[in-house]
Model the fold of this input.
Amino acid sequence: MQNRSATLKMGQWLLFAGLCLSPMVVSAKTILILGDSISAAYGMNAEQGWVNLLQKRLNQQYPKQHKVVNASVSGETTSGALARLPKLLSTHRPDVVVIELGGNDGLRGQPPQMMENNLAQLVQRSQKAKAKVILLGMKIPPNYGTAYTQAFESKYKVVSQRYQVKLLPFFLQNVAGNATLMQKDLIHPNPKAQVILLNNAYPYIKGAL
Done:
């Protein structure tokens, strides 16, 4: 009888432990990175890019818990990403959407208002799909004058405040302007910069999880 009682108690304990651990499995999340060449690991192997480093860090801290989907495309604009987003949302059903876009809009001199409208729609559609959104802000060279540059940079803050999403003001902080961390074109970060980019974005992504 004592052995049977002990076995029953052990079974009850294992069931309780399983119930306690089960939320860890349920909490697994998919993170969609919607970016341009900076997130697409332009000029290097994909394994060297910050997005792949993100998956590795998550695997270390939360084994088998989170999946990172890199939907970044070199040369991507906010308009191009907006056209791709519906299929990405329906296919991957992300819990978190990280938007790293706008740099190509600015380099092409597209109207900042158009970029704002596109970013707003990207955020709205992601939120409608029940995803948390993170905006990674960008800055551009003053090629088109101070007024344009300021208008461009301000749009990230406008969108983040309007839709209550977290904003990293400048994704390339501590990277841009440092020749040792940039490729020869002085536009794209090199492999040495990738861990810095990850460290810039990681607190925001971890907070969303």
Strands lie at 29-35, 66-70, 96-100, 132-136, 166-168. Helices lie at 2-26, 50-61, 78-92, 103-107, 112-128, 146-163, 194-208.
